[in-house]
Amino acid sequence: MEEVPTVQAAGCVLWRRSPVGGGVEIALVYRPKWADWSHPKGKLKRGEDARRAAVREVLEETGMDCELGAPLPTTRYVDAQGRRKEVRYWAARAVGGEFLPNREVSRLLWLTPDGARHTLTHARDRELIAAFCAVLGETGRGS
To answer: Which domain holds residue 63?
Structure first.
């Protein structure tokens, strides 16, 4: 039996300082194809490294330019099509840009870490919030 290759992907826990109060806000995207709220992420293109793919996916899905920060835990799971998937993540600070709905993402929300944790669809994505807060030294309790 032939082993099916693992799909390699990359993404970010995209964050900014709130314009009101200066607390941390995390960007979540809504993907209508999968009817889920998630962190921006996507598959690596041929020859592309994970860091470059993470920045590209953030820009494509959120319209935001970002600066990669600390690496976060890698998630491994079986996707909706039954493929094994491995997603490398980074904390990434938004440094500019503007969201426009596109074919993959119809909505973007900026939420406190607790708000993001409660909005994310998949447990594997919620687990990244704690790792992100530990890296930033944030409590995850709003501002």
So the answer is: 7-136
